[in-house]
């Protein structure tokens, strides 16, 4: 597994405002959207392309376009939805799948309650978006499902990561074609499995605590 921490002043600036507990939900959603676009720019450096011949207003030339099968973007519900628009803005021709996952707050294990994506992902580059790589359980379960369906190149895009979660993914997904792109790897997890210093519960901060 490969992990890439995006070191850029704009990334650090937006992440700092996301961390601030005074940042309200509308601002949090907007900044998360902007930040994921910056992360996606780095995450798609190796997106697969093919050559194409075109005519400019001046002459004929050769360019590139995204190859088929098209990339698949998979947000992890619910907080991953807040990152979806930033991804498809950068990859407007990508297809979108969904995975609904919930963490048992006693065992901290992730359980899948809904999926909506192709059964066969052979040859597909898949971009999984989830704000937090905390314990690693949710992303490990999600990525295993994608690989089971044939995905051979998976990139997880997270706003923040904890070293414990990175370690779990490196152990559980050893030898798998997985890359993690994040704005920062923080200090640790606390006793409640929240990232420290972190930014709190990303889903609650995006959408409130209703339900």
UniProtKB/TrEMBL annotation:
Its EC number is 2.4.2.9. It catalyses: UMP + diphosphate = 5-phospho-alpha-D-ribose 1-diphosphate + uracil. GO terms for biological process: UMP salvage; uracil salvage. Its cofactor is Mg(2+). It is an enzyme of class 2 (transferase). Binds 1 Mg(2+) ion per subunit. The magnesium is bound as Mg-PRPP. Keywords: Allosteric enzyme, Glycosyltransferase, GTP-binding, Magnesium, Nucleotide-binding, Transferase. It comes from the Bacteria. The keyword Glycosyltransferase applies. One of its GO terms (molecular function) is magnesium ion binding. InterPro entries: PRTase-like, PRTase_dom, Upp_B, UPRT, UPRTase/APRTase. One of its GO terms (cellular component) is cytoplasm. Catalyzes the conversion of uracil and 5-phospho-alpha-D-ribose 1-diphosphate (PRPP) to UMP and diphosphate. Belongs to the UPRTase family. This is Uracil phosphoribosyltransferase. It comes from Streptomyces chattanoogensis.
